[in-house]
């Protein structure tokens, strides 16, 4: 069972590069791991975090890491009383600008937005045509876990599992992908963390592929932008997260056909909320747990085909989530 996996603690030491008075200096930041992060109320100092991307120190890149990224270049403590979520941000992917940011580097629980990284790993390192046999590791029994309904012995393609992961937010699909690709939850989580560091998401640490809360499973609004931005480079990711409803047939362990219809949970796509005039939703991922609150990251475009990523973390409830998201989307068109 996924919940029985032995958890490895986050590295206690991370290296960070920052720019001060035009000079690049190397500093070592000691993190407290699981202890000291209860409540995840330790935000990054923005001047240390953002200038990391202006160096070439991430993943051994020869060119400056930030040449194609939105960078928070000044104190992002945006004042807007209408944005009541703990963290929120708007990123203009065309002009590489941050249009709004509230607590973009605060460590928070991502809930099922975690699955964006799971999908990225599957698309980058896996094959959509792979046949996956579901194992007992996909049995999720935690209260409140969302499932797509697969069972041990079922045979699905990786593509089918990705729809089951991203639309109904199936934790079981995430576990099945992890086991198929890496042999287990532990090993796949390491792949997720390695990929996070590779794309510069240094404020992130994952313990599972689905997002069930743990003190040592966290990310930031800015890191989620980096992850979602990377995922958008894959046409199949855009296709999957832009789908409202998906119907498929797969085989169970006895060889019988199983028909499934999975529906998305983004209210802008299901018609329960309207996008601001002039904007079209491209797709996204929701996430909700008691610890994480209500969360949403998504991509959108305007009439000029300019694209944006918006993220809201730890809104008080679903209605408040979409109120917050609409408020920050309006900053694109105002």
From TrEMBL:
Keyword Nucleotidyltransferase: no
Keywords from the named record: Carboxypeptidase, Cell shape, Cell wall biogenesis/degradation, Hydrolase, Peptidoglycan synthesis, Protease, Signal
Family matches, as Pfam families: Peptidase_S11 (PF00768)
Gene3D superfamilies per the UniProt record, alphabetical: DD-peptidase/beta-lactamase superfamily (3.40.710.10)
Record-level Gene Ontology MF annotations: serine-type D-Ala-D-Ala carboxypeptidase activity
Residue stretches spanning the membrane: none
Binding site for substrate: 285
Record-level GO BP terms: cell wall organization; peptidoglycan biosynthetic process; proteolysis; regulation of cell shape
Location of the active site: 112 (acyl-ester intermediate), 115 (proton acceptor), 169
Top-level lineage group: Bacteria
Domain Peptidase S11 D-alanyl-D-alanine carboxypeptidase A N-terminal: from-to ranges: 79-316
Record-stated family: Belongs to the peptidase S11 family.
Protein name: D-alanyl-D-alanine carboxypeptidase-like protein
Source species: [Clostridium] celerecrescens 18A
